[in-house]
Design goal:
The strands form three sheets. Strands 3, 4, 7, 8, 10, 14, 15 and 16 form an eight-stranded antiparallel beta sheet that branches. The protein has a six-stranded antiparallel beta sheet with strand order 1-2-13-12-11-9, with no helix packed on it. It has a two-stranded antiparallel sheet with strand order 5-6. The chain has twelve helices and 16 strands. The protein starts with 6 loop residues before the first helix and ends in a 52-residue tail after the last helix. It has 520 residues and is α+β, with helices and mostly antiparallel strands. It has one domain. It is globular, with a radius of gyration of 23 Å. The relative contact order is 0.21. The chain has helices spanning 7-16, 196-201, 231-235, 242-245, 328-331, 338-343, 353-357, 361-368, 384-392, 427-434, 452-460, 463-468, and strands at residues 50-57, 66-78, 92-99, 108-118, 122-125, 128-131, 150-160, 167-170, 172-173, 181-182, 205-208, 216-224, 261-271, 284-299, 311-323, 409-412.
Length: 520
């Protein structure tokens, strides 16, 4: 069982750990970064495409003991995406799941549902009142503004137990008991919404969570995309010089191509006492997000006037998106199984075992740079270091009691949050290498500042085995040692030339920055 060590004690126990038992090798899969348009089917369903999940101990001043959970959807939003912008799908279910006993099954599910309230604003044009074609008829500066032609609302339901058959109760607004919340309109532009930061702040709600004595907070709305990755070159067979991506001085050599994009965030802040199991003292939780749509969708060739869509929906809900650790489906899962992974649950991750124990990405790196097979890819097959890091949790850091190996973010809620300026951009990995005291970063949960692309490059090419050393300091097993890593210490210097830490973020909830306006 993970113990609630103070930070320095964690480091000492972590570095002295020896020979942690490895679980079955035919298991799930590790993380590789973020998840935009990662599977064939989801490219046709952008409204339910989950892109990033964050789970971290809140580092906003005065919020000690709280955990922030963020699930992002609808990737690559251009700020000028009018006139309809990026409304959520009222016929879908968006969910954030929490496993608090390590069995790879959801114990808590925060279920988000959306409603689009159409006002049908008209203008008198001659003798007739004619419907306007835009999302707004004038400036917007308050919740549920009468100038909005479509006002989005949402509800959040907490389901205890199975997501479809457990006990369900709504989150309610403190003071009023309301179960519906207004979602801010997307950042249309500064003429429509002159002060978007102030407008969006009106939509941060203090909520009562069923069965929880401590209030939480919720925000749903558009944010600036916080993920940074050298997207084009990475998927163009790593179209960058090897000398560049192994030079630490060049970690910010390239512009972030996502810097001008927005995203839609579902953000919750919940006290950790409301997330942990009451049956044990285990401080570790597992987190992942999903989205589900109706099984049947029939296009109406003669849609009636006044309706949002020409599609009729029926049948049960089917999961079409899943995300926990970043970039799993993009660069780990083989193309034939990408849709299957999005439809799967963590408890069934054994079916994807070969993708983590025998990953193809290191060999693709060799192919990309014209290197002989085995000259860069680690030789410690099956990759037990990846099993420990990404499927079971790291001993004495974020491993739950008797974990069922599965792909999800695992966060130790007892490890203190670190202020933003003091966070190591390489998360837990960078902290170990630097001998610091920041144990709150990826893969122990994930914070916005954590450079998950660089961390994953280091892990995939064997950098953690270099840190593990011949004495098995990290508990990855005796096969994970420097002799099994052809790149040697170079594996610790890998990066994508885009610096995640340079992204702008807010100092507190909902942490992701104000979205970019369509016009300035």
């Amino acid at each position: 069982m993970p113990m609630q060590y103070p930070p320095r004690a964690i480091f000492r126990k972590f570095m002295l750990a020896a020979g942690c038992p490895l679980l079955a090798l035919s298991l799930g899969l590790p993380a590789q970064a973020s998840s935009h348009r990662e599977a064939p089917f989801i490219t046709t369903q952008p409204k339910v495409d989950g892109t990033d999940v964050y789970a971290f101990n809140s580092y906003e001043r005065g919020r000690t003991g709280y955990v922030t959970l963020i699930a992002n959807y609808q990737p690559l939003q251009d700020s000028y995406g009018g006139p309809n912008y990026f409304k959520m799908d009222p016929n879908a279910i968006y969910e954030i799941h929490v496993d608090n006993n390590g069995d790879a099954r959801e114990d808590l599910t925060f279920q988000f549902r959306f409603q689009n309230a159409f006002r049908g604003i008209t203008l008198p044009i001659g003798p007739q009142n004619v419907a306007i074609p835009l999302s707004q008829s004038g400036p917007v500066n308050a919740r549920n503004s009468p100038a909005l032609n479509v006002n989005e609302k949402f509800s959040v339901t907490l389901v205890r137990g199975h997501r479809r058959g457990g006990y369900a109760a709504p989150l309610t607004r403190m003071g009023s008991g309301a179960t519906l919340f207004d979602k801010p309109a997307d950042n249309i532009g500064t003429k429509t919404i002159p002060d978007y930061a102030a407008y969006a702040a009106q939509h941060i709600y203090e909520v009562q969570i069923p069965g929880c004595a401590t209030p939480g907070r919720v925000f749903v709305g558009q944010r600036q995309e916080g993920f940074a990755v050298n997207l084009g070159p990475i998927f163009d067979l790593i179209n960058a010089p090897l000398s560049l991506i192994t030079d630490p001085a060049q970690i910010n050599a390239a512009p972030n191509p996502l810097a001008d994009k927005n995203i839609t965030s579902l953000a919750l802040e919940v006290h950790k006492s409301c997330l942990l199991s009451h049956k044990s003292s285990d401080p570790v939780i597992g987190v992942w997000s999903t989205a589900s749509v109706r099984q049947n969708q029939q296009v109406n060739p003669y849609p009636p006037s006044g309706h949002q869509t020409s599609v009729n929906y029926s049948g049960g809900f089917v999961q079409v998106s899943r995300l926990g650790m970043p970039l799993v489906n993009e660069v780990v899962v083989g193309l034939p199984d990408k849709d299957k992974f999005n439809a799967s649950v963590p408890g069934n991750d054994r079916q994807f075992g070969k993708y983590v124990t025998n990953p193809t990405f290191p060999r693709l790196v060799e192919i990309a740079f014209g290197l002989p097979a085995g000259s860069a890819a680690p030789r410690n097959l099956p990759r037990q270091d990846l099993v420990v890091t990404f499927l079971t949790g790291i001993p004495n850091v974020n491993r739950p009691t008797n974990p069922t190996p599965s792909e999800m973010l695992r966060l130790n809620t007892s490890i203190p949050a670190v202020p933003f300026q003091q966070q190591n951009r390489l998360g837990l990995v960078g902290n170990i290498l630097a001998g610091g005291t920041d144990f709150a970063g990826y893969p122990n949960g994930r914070r916005p500042k954590d450079d998950v692309v660089d961390i994953t490059l280091v892990a995939a090419l064997g950098g953690l085995c270099i840190a593990n050393g011949n004495n098995n300091a990290l508990g990855f097993g005796p096969d994970c040692n420097p002799s099994q890593v052809p790149l040697g210490a170079t594996a610790l210097r890998l990066h994508d030339a885009v610096d995640q830490a340079a992204q702008p973020f807010l100092p507190g909830f909902p942490y992701l920055n104000t979205p970019i306006p369509g016009a300035r």
